[in-house]
Amino acid sequence: MEVVVLPDTARIAALVADAVEDLVRRRPDAVLGVATGSTPLPVYRELVRRRDAGVAPDYDAVRFFTLDEYVGLPAGSEASYRCTIARELTDPLGVDASHVHGPDPSPDGLADAGERYEAAIRDAGGIDLQLLGIGSDGHLAFNEPGSSLASRTRIKTLTEQTRRDNARFFGSAQEVPRHVLTQGLGTILEARHLVLVATGGAKAAALAAAVEGPVGASCPASALQLHPHATVLLDDAAAAGLERAAHYREVWEHKPTWQGL
Q1: Are strands 129-132 and 193-198 parallel, antiparallel or unpaired?
Q2: Which active-site residues does the annotation give?
């Protein structure tokens, strides 16, 4: 696992955008895994800014897969993750809607929605780069503490803490759906490159547990320690709980520039 501590969100967003664009230039038909929430928004805005400036690669053949989706929202709800990704990223990048995929929350298909989504990812050739955030309790996607490290895409029940954390996207915590479809930890670990972004002091304890604590279901994000190519990018506030923060800064400062992330 590579841990990169940077002074501000803008630097993090630029570095992740560089990694995405380098991948797309190498592989015009790359498969990108995208996350929702507040944390990845600076990355998406940077990618869109570069496209608007005319310096971005062509995204016409790129496929996008979301990490998860709420169950029980009205069809076409602006709070759905499919609509959120379209609004914040893929529509501004000019991506055809047929190239954007998410778990299907339709009531009549919930029983096998996870299996169908797993098949769709396999048929696309697997995810090349998966962008991730981390919850204040260490959850990854919607894999809450206690989730199996081998779990696959499935329906999950959200904890009250996660519903409170996501209330800002709704009118109140009570309006946040109780159920979601989410990629499992085992599914996420199959992506070829995992890029986790965390900013702010509220994520410091979860980050410390994920990066320097034991690997286990109590902190789902600790599963990243098992991955051969996982990158964690965080600002100073999110790095506040790391015992080896100085080491990570030194390693990054002296890393050969040609290596990238």
Answers
A1: parallel
A2: 68, 137, 139, 144
